[in-house]
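Sample entry (481 residues):
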Amino acid sequence: MPQIETTARTTRGIQQTLFAPPVPARPEAPAEAKGVVYTKRWVVELLLDLAGYRAETNLIDTMAVEPSAGDGAFLGPMVERLAESCRTLNRPLSDCAASLLAYELDEESAGKARALAVRILVKSGATRALAETLAAGWVRTGDYLFESGRIEADFVIGNPPYIRLEEIPEETAMLYRDAWPAMRGRADLYVAFFEAALRQLRPGGVCAFICADRWMRNQYGAQLRNLVTSAYGVEVVVEMHNADAFADEVDAYPAITVIRRQTQGSTVVATAGPEAEHISPRMLSDALHPARRRGQSAALPGLRTAVVDTWFKGSDPWPCHSPEQLALLRRLEDRFPKLEVNARVGIGVATGNDSVFITKNPNLVESSRLLRLAMAKDIATGTLEWSGHYLVDPWTCRPRNGEGLVDLGKYPRLRAYFAEHATALKKRHTAVNNLNGWYKTIDRVTHALAAKPKLYIADIKVLWNKPSSHLLENYRLEAAA
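Predicted structure, serialized as tokens:
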């Protein structure tokens, strides 16, 4: 098998070593086989189609790797397609000795995978001796993460194990971290599988996994996202939270990702529901393929898709739950500058005690000490409809001291109101740290902003039906007209 040449490439200003670091020393015993989740056949077929591992192409002269073979959920269909490719090209099965490689930690599972490969090969016309020789060479009992760096691949396809690092023996976990720098923090082992797969790809090679999608958004996936966007192209992302993808019910949020070692182009983002299982994998694949998707007109049940022409950069999270919203977001980002370029972005005033500082009583204190508030529900319809709320305002419009608070002696009703609630107001953290300003709100009111045009946007908490007044705008309603 060819040895990987250690090289680096600079892409979009970030230099990434494209191949794995030197192979680390093995621990005395391999990590215990855990996190095994078997993938349903329709998902396997879809993943193979999306990766381009198709029987009508020349699979004999390529190298396909299955990094976590299990009993052969992926290996079996791959052997079937490889045998069909031989028939199509009129080549003997003996030519395929270097076409497949599968890793499995557990010897019993590896034996089952070999037996499956033998049955398929014999059924395809191979002698038992040839079938056993090929299967023995294809399926290795070993740790993919310790061996993958020695081999270049055109395809790395599978379902990597889901194992938290704290569940792995400490010695092994340390070796994994040293070998795979993308695996940081409280990462899951599948992050290392992604990195290992990407780094062993030949130019044009593809990594196609079904795996938990948390790494696309959370902190421990930041380094992996940075690696992907620096030297690879994301072709397809399919969120499958509601699809029946696995043989057993598992507590995971899976997604299909197809990532190729090539320049980033358009990406198909999709969501697959339960109905997708009843559609042929080839139809699903055609609907999800970036090139074929452009001409796709008929909608498929249970599948929502969108084409995104520009992908994320660096370690930015990938919010891929809604294909349509993501496509719209990317179009807006391409067409318009960021909001901060031409506008000030801020949130409403935090009071520290909404029950005291927010009221609907227009006669509670002096009228000059009341500012009309736009609450989140006031813009729920898309049009500003004031609900009658006021902020009891302790700030002066023309500050003459460091605090900018009004002199309560000039506002007897305001003074009496705050005195009534003095005990509660003085218990706030902001008041404990500033006894003279015990009646201030946490955030200062900037009156000069009241006359400026504004765009009101409800905070995301409104979606949970838990509006919080510290997120509300503190400007007069007239200013939003």
